[in-house]
Every structure is written in structure tokens, then in C-alpha cells.
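Recall that a protein's primary structure is simply its ordered list of amino acids. Everything else, from secondary elements to tertiary packing, is in principle encoded there. The following example makes that idea concrete.
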Amino acid sequence: MKLKKHIYAEHFSDYEIPFFDVDSMFIMWHGHYVKYLEMARCAFLEEIGYTYDVMREKGYGWPIVQLNLKYVKPATFRQKIRVKLSVVEYESCLRIEYVIVDLNTHKKLTTGSTTQVAVDINNGEMQFQTPQSWRDAIACYQGFRPQTEK
């Protein structure tokens, strides 16, 4: 039996696939999907007020240490898509799961996940717990759902 993951926060970002992201068959090149995950993540971070600029000001870098993608169906030129972002871990790292769907039909196009860790900018040491400033920022997000003890 697979346990259901707790989702602490969700965010949605909508985009239209431009010409410069597609190949000669008008299919989005596989490498560009990562860009859409990043744009959705930046939109979420902007909404909670904890952008990459703030991370740096607080003394931390947040490198991606793991990236996974599963291509289900290709996105195409001028297709309108929605990137659904779900935060599934925020205390030991930032783990986000993504689902990209066609905005009109809601058919799944791609799934993926990223894991980022906090690294102290001064000494390069990875943090085994995310900084308190990050935990406070996400806990103040209007859509934050803390996990309740069972």
C-alpha cells in the first residue's frame, strides 16, 4: 500500500508554449520542461516573499540536488499549460512535485519533482534542517497546510 504524501502548499502557474521552445515538429524540446518548473517555483517563492534574493540575503544558496521528469504527452507550440506545484517537504529540504497539464483539457503532459537543500554561503556546508527564515515564510503562506499528528 502506497502512503499518500502530505502537501504543505500548492501553487498554480499558467503559460503558453512559445515558438522558441519547440522543435521543427512544433513539439516542446524536452530540456525546456525544466525551465517551466523553475518559472513556477519562482512564482511560488515570489508569492510567499522568499525569493532567491532573500535566500542569498539570509546567507543561503539553494542548489537543486535531485531532478526527476516523466514525459507523458508532449506540449506543443501555442498550447496553454498549467504547472501545478506541490510542496511535499520543507523542513529538511525543499521538495516539490509538479504536474504539467493542458489548460483546456486538463490532460496530464508531464510530472516531475525537484529537491533543493540549503547551503551556507560562507562555508559551503549543507544544512540538515532548512533555515528558520524559510520555515517561517512558508508557514505564513495563505495556503499552508501543516501536517497534523494522528
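The helical segments are 33-48, 52-57, 132-139. The first strand starts at residue 9 and ends at 16.
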